[in-house]
Structures are given as C-alpha cells and as structure tokens.
Write a structure and sequence with these properties.
Strand content: 5-15%
Radius of gyration: 20 Å
Helix content: 25-40%
Oligomer: single chain
Shape: globular
Number of strands: 8
Low-confidence stretches: 1-23, 297-308
Order of helices and strands: EEHHHHHEEEHEEHE
C-alpha cells in the first residue's frame, strides 16, 4: 500500500498496490509485510518478481475497487457521528475515485475501452453497494477509531523488520485494542479461515512488540458476503506467528543469496501477470539482478538485533 498527500482535511488516500509499480535498482529485501509474506508462501518466484525485480503489474478492477472502498470508509470518519450514514458514504464514492485517479493516472486505463462510461458506472455502483453493505455489519455512528490507515513497523530481536498498514484501530475505554480490516471479497470457507487470519495475527504481533499489549480482538469485515470474522489472540498464538515469520525470513534470505526462487503452481496462477516469465508455463525469468549474494548470512539484512519500531499513539 502507498499513502500519498491527496487528502481532504489532512487525511491521506492510501492505495493498495505491490512494490512493483516503481522500478529501481534491485536490492535485497529488508523487511516483511503481510502481503509480501503471503506472496512468498504462495509462490517464491512471485515474491522475487515483486520485491527484487520489481516487475510492473497491470491494475485490476477488483483491487482498485477495494482501494476505493477503503478510502471511502476511512474518509467517512472525518464526518460527525450523526452524518455517518449510508447515503453520505455512497456520495463520497465519486470524489474518492477522482482523488484516486489523481494519485494514479494509469488507473484510467481500466476503462479505456468504455467510451459511453457504462462499465465505469456499473463499477462505481458496485463500490457503492459494498459501502452500503458495511452499514449492516457495523454502526459507524457508535465508533470513534483511535487510528485509521495506521502505519506500523517493528524490528524483532532477530533483526527481522515487520511493517504494514492497519485499516482501523479501535480502543475501548478500558484500554482494550481491536484491530479491524476491511475486505471487499467474500469470507473464506472455514477450512481456509486460518490463512485469512494470518494478516491479522501479523498486525497483532507488531502491536504487541511495540506496545506490549496483545490486541483483545482481531476483526475481518467481509463486504463481499456481508460477514464478520473475529478472533481473540493470545501470547501463544503470536509467538507461533513470530516463529513462522522467522522461518519465512530465513527461507527468503537463502533464496536471496542463492538466486534460487522456485515457482509454485496453484489455481492463483490464472490471475498472475507474470506467467510469460514463469518456468511452470514455459517462460524464462529475467536475469537475476542481484549479482553479489549477501555474504555469510542467512538473512538479507541484519540491523543489529536491537528492538525498535514506529507506531501511532494507540
């Protein structure tokens, strides 16, 4: 996600994206986010393409709609509680779309073949329907988030740096913390719930390491299906997540040093922008851009193992 100074009343518009939108000098990875951890677990080669090669990817209607809906829900909390209504939220959609276009003019390509604007109108209507569905799941007139689009970053004792952006943080009068994430897709089936909660446990671990407080509740709001998934983590949960992340980081370090990034074929390959470069589909990856491996280390970077980080005043 990228946040830029496109705000109204001092708020930022944050764009869901990958690190592939701006190319530059290749460098070893130096941090881990939930999205990039998910990339490596899904397909190590995809992680390489996004983080090291920084290959461009085309914007998609679904991902861009998710960005738009997130922006509307964040912006709505700038309104007084009594004005946080469904009609008001839907009315924010066109303006937030214009701000998104200002931030990323290339998004106009999504509707380049839509001369009469019919497809764009339907796309915006679907965004409005997702926004409206949120009101059946939560009551924004009774919520006063402590933080919205909160950037968090923590460095573990191992030297691994974790970072990400949390959609919403609620803090009860008793001090209990709830982490909320909006999803514009449908809730997963129960057998896939653990994978869906990985991102939330990642954020809970970061908050715990920074604030020494375990969030009381993790909440995923699925606007596509109108469902809410909650989970109450404990210290044992978060320690398991930390061990998993350390193992992932070690594997990333080994692949970074060796240049050996294995593809993993799944049904998600059907939506990958990089099939033409993937050996699983007869392609050849570009030359590995890191000519010099990281010497004598299993991690791409080591910042001395001093715990540190950044977070707002939750």
């Amino acid at each position: 996600m990228v946040c830029g100074p496109l705000s109204v009343a001092g708020r930022r518009v944050c764009v869901m994206t990958t690190s592939t939108e701006s190319s530059g000098t290749a460098r070893p990875p130096d941090s881990l986010s939930p999205s990039r951890a998910g990339d490596f677990m899904q397909c190590p080669l995809l992680y390489r393409f996004r983080v090291i090669d920084r290959l461009p990817e085309k914007p998609s209607e679904a991902a861009t709609r998710g960005t738009l809906v997130h922006a509307v829900l964040e912006r709505l909390f700038d309104e007084p509680a009594e004005r946080r209504t469904a009609p008001r939220a839907k009315a924010l959609v066109p303006g937030q779309w214009e701000r998104l276009l200002e931030s990323r003019p290339q998004l106009a390509e999504l509707f380049a073949g839509d001369p009469d604007g019919a497809r764009l109108a339907e796309w915006l209507s679907e965004a409005e329907r997702l926004v409206e569905r949120w009101f059946a799941l939560e009551d924004p007139t009774r919520l006063e988030p402590a933080e919205r689009e909160l950037f968090v970053e923590a460095e573990l004792e191992s030297g691994l740096r974790l970072r990400g952006i949390i959609d919403r943080v609620d803090v009860a009068p008793t001090g209990e913390v709830r982490i909320v994430d909006y999803k514009t897709g449908k809730a997963p089936r129960p057998e896939y719930a653990e994978g869906a909660l990985f991102q939330m446990k990642f954020y809970a671990l970061v908050v715990w390491r920074l604030k020494r407080v375990i969030p009381r509740r993790l909440q995923l709001v699925y606007l596509g299906s109108g469902e809410v998934m909650t989970y109450d983590p404990d210290a044992a949960d978060l320690r398991r997540v930390e061990r998993k992340l350390l193992a992932l980081w070690e594997a990333i370090g080994q692949a970074t040093g060796s240049g050996d990034w294995r593809p993993r074929r799944t049904r998600l390959c059907d939506w990958c922008d990089h099939r033409a470069l993937c050996p699983e589909f007869g392609g050849t990856p570009p030359p590995y851009p890191l000519a010099v491996p990281v010497p004598g280390s299993q991690r791409p970077a080591d910042s001395g193992g001093v715990p540190q980080g950044r977070m707002g005043p939750v």
